[in-house]
Write a sequence for this structure.
């Protein structure tokens, strides 16, 4: 988060050039806040979002998750759906959108 802004390619700059732009960004923990700069992969996002706790493993096992990177692909699917929704909105209204999501939010 923030790299494209530092290059002059943030949403505000690009929207000034193309008002109906669909600008998308996805991160592990969100674009802002305490964890906004953290790099992450699926298992880390699983733990952060609470999915590991909801894995259903019997007690007294520690919350360990399902053993695969659920949010790596679920984040991508959810993000693709958000992009399609933004494209649909633009086709109906002519307005652009800024789509921002994180793996942890999807979880």
């Amino acid at each position: 988060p923030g790299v494209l802004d530092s290059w002059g390619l943030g949403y505000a700059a690009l929207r000034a050039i193309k008002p109906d732009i669909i600008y998308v960004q996805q991160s592990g923990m969100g674009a802002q806040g305490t964890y906004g700069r953290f790099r992450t992969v699926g298992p880390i996002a699983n733990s952060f979002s609470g999915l590991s706790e909801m894995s259903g493993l019997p007690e007294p096992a520690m919350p360990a998750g399902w053993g695969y990177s659920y949010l790596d692909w679920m984040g991508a699917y959810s993000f693709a759906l958000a992009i399609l929704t933004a494209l649909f909105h633009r086709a109906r209204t002519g307005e652009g959108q800024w789509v921002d999501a994180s793996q942890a939010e999807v979880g």
Q: What stands out?
A: The beta strands are 22-27, 97-102. The chain has one domain: 3-106.
